[in-house]
Amino acid sequence: MSGTTLEQFSYDNKIVKYFGAATVIWGLAGMLIGVIAATQLFLPEANMGNPYTTFGRIRPLHTNAVIFAFVGNAIFAGVYYSMPRLLKAPMWNKTLSWFHFWGWQAIILSAVITLPLGLTSSKEYAELEWPIDIAIAVVWVAFGANMIGTLITRREKHMYVAIWFYLASFVTVAVLHIFNSLALPVSLFKSYSAYAGVQDALVQWWYGHNAVAFFLTTPFLGLMYYYLPKAANRPVYSYKLSIIHFWSLIFIYIWAGPHHLLYTALPEWAQVLGVAFSVMLIAPSWGGMVNGLLTLRGAWDKVRVDPVLKFMVVAVTAYGMATFEGPLLSLKNVNAIAHYTDWIVAHVHIGGLGWNGFLTFSMLYWLWPKMWRTNLYSVKLANTHFWLGTLGILFYALPMYVAALTQSLMWKEFGEAGRLAYPNFLETVIQIVPMYMLRAFGGVLYLSGAILMVYNLIKTAAAGSFQEEEADEAPALAKHVPTGGEFWHRAWERKPVFFTVLATVAILIGGVVEIIPTILIKSNVPTISSVEPYTPLELQGRDLYISNGCVGCHSQMIRPFRNETERYGEYSKAGEFVYDRPFLWGSKRTGPDLHRVGGKYPDSWHYHHMVDPRTMSPGSLMPPYPWMTTTIMDHSSIGAKIRTMMKLGVPYPEGYDETAIDDLRAQAESIVAGLKESGVEVLPETEIVALIAYLQRLGTDISKTTSANP
């Protein structure tokens, strides 16, 4: 290229090092919390006898740590290394890069503090309260601004496929996070969702499913498209397949959220759309897997000896398995078996441990020697990590599949007399305890492998010399580029803003079609005249239920199956949830469904069950909550809570926020008097009284004989 002036610049490896180190540190923390949570499911003593370390509170801590801390930091490390090199330009603004790094770590730290304290919205994968949600949005936008700034200052004419996925991930996560997090604050760490009941469920799983899609999948596909060809020293198998893969994936994925709500009170049309698009998803997903695996043509001899490629092959295969299983689970007949069982837990962890975990490990093993200008300290240790991790996944997932089939078959079994063969939910729980033990063992194996990796990376760094700034040179981007005769997608790749707008339109269509009619057309949620707002004490009890993460083990959604109506009572109706902010339908039954528990047991039963579950339910694995009988609940916020609910449309009487405390005290005194007759002495301000009030309300708005629209 005679006569072309080369511009000199450098890439910042320091930010990559910091994000990589954060990936490792938070990864170990998240996995350790996961092992503790897995142990709690067969050993209640592992809840450690205090409110901060119970399963209900550390489960969301585990999911947030592995998704947003471990996987999130891995995404950022991968993007900050690959994007500048693909665009032949340093990241646009170093200050934004470091604001992003420290802001993200501060958000994670706030989650570590608030979730064990019970400060939660209870929305799955979106548990953090409103001030932290705002911080997430600000830091995420800073990340996106830095990416777009780098695109504008690039020296490379076209955007490589990895960058398509980075851009789509940025835009979609921003949209999902903002709309799902809409809430009205009550106080600094308490808010109520802008949506109620059915609408809240749909918006949450539009977010929840697509958080998996656009945080755990599309950014990692971008990383796969960069790091797998680099590690294999082979070009991507098919450019045209990557185009089909990208556009079909981001368009179809956004529609699939309702498959999490099959056989629930969600309108049937939304369920059908969710199933149809979920089944279609297998094509683009497998297109990506095939493109990844076929990139290794001619390099399979390297896979045998290179641990980086070993991890990548299993990661891409796990992606293929998880994206086959997802559409399978979205079929209504399969979902009827799998939903609320451990099958869903197994499915999520095949993707999390296999796809996200292994691709992250491979990327770190590839990056560390590059940045420290040395060789990996020990290939043998990396191979040992690979086999420990692989065995860990097998010991985790296979017992969960066995547990799931056991759960589903026992829940649905009827005896010769036409009655439930196993009417006591605990009979199922006791049967699957050995599977829970094996699952925890698998977690220990996986964590052990990660610890070996940390040692290996530390020794690799010690043996080398870190290159903080990596020099490069390239000609400036030509200002006028002829467009005639250029392949249409190549033309799009030269226009990053236009490309981003197209991606945004593609992801908005599905959400708009599903969510807006559910909110605006009232016939989607038939009302039931007997359903009334929660009393002030019940509202306090509900918030306590949310704070303790009870929804992590108990559903509140009885599906229209004979075994469920026989076991729990009348199936759930959409109109029963119109005052539920947030909805609490749950996604897993480690304990029985509670939607019709109101009036089923006396108040004293609930009291003793919370103090020591095994006295009321021998063999129960639920942790005891004895502190609830002595912890005084602060009811001073009830006026603010009632006012917030009224602003959201809950029909409390005018001025009720001023008198609500009187009704609260009267109901508390009534419960205390009833407990006293049963030989239980307790103060009316204690947490247990509010929780009993809420539990005794559940499902009592309609009786079994009520004929309401389903």
UniProtKB/TrEMBL annotation:
CC annotations in GO: plasma membrane
Give the record's pathway: Energy metabolism; oxidative phosphorylation
- Say which domain of life the source belongs to: Bacteria
**In which residues is heme b 1; low-spin bound?**
H62, H349
Q: Where does Cu cation bind?
A: H209, H259, H260
* Segments traversing the membrane: 18-43, 63-83, 95-118, 130-152, 164-186, 206-227, 239-257, 269-296, 308-324, 344-366, 386-404, 436-458, 497-520
As its record notes, the protein acts as a catalyst of: 4 Fe(II)-[cytochrome c] + O2 + 8 H(+)(in) = 4 Fe(III)-[cytochrome c] + 2 H2O + 4 H(+)(out)
What's the record's note on cofactor binding?
Binds 2 heme groups per subunit, denoted as high- and low-spin. Binds 1 copper ion per subunit, denoted as copper B.
Per the record, the similarity remark reads:
Belongs to the heme-copper respiratory oxidase family.
What name has this protein been given in UniProt? cytochrome-c oxidase
Q: Where does this protein come from, organism-wise?
A: Cyclobacterium xiamenense
